[in-house]
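[STRUCTURE TOKENS]
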Amino acid sequence: MKKLILICGANGIGKSTASKALLSVLQKSAYVESDFCRMTNPNDFRPALLQMQFQNLCALIGNALACPEIEYVIFPYGLHGHRKELFERLWEETKRKFSDTCLIPLLLFCSPEENVRRAKADGRDLERIERGMKNSGNVYDAVDWPRIDVTELTPDETAQAMLRVIFSDTLTGKVWY
């Protein structure tokens, strides 16, 4: 069975960095980065632009899942705003095309102070950091997914913590979406 590993968390928490670290230690894996699929000018929520983003993500994830050498697709993605609906559509399309795929969601979280420190280290300006904290800070409070506190973890330690969850027997058969 193929596995789509959805790595979520607040803006600036380190989803992409942790995903790259996971890729380096998880055999038979592919990493699908959503950021460049969403880069447009204008960068807004026009229906045609959102549809293009959806199609781009479906294609990249689908290509990885269709490859016989790939068992795990690592997908860091924030679920705030319109992205939650987009992911739900993406997951429905993935299940339709690749019925032998299961979803393993992982939620990364850390202290607000550490989140700000990481976002600054990533080169984000204060306005973007404040907007990100406001838009994504509480989105995951009610989500019943495996959680990893990354406040004091390096990317490599985060990857090891994610591996422990991915290979945990408690995930077997759980339906997340």
Remarks:
- The first helix runs from residue 15 to 25.
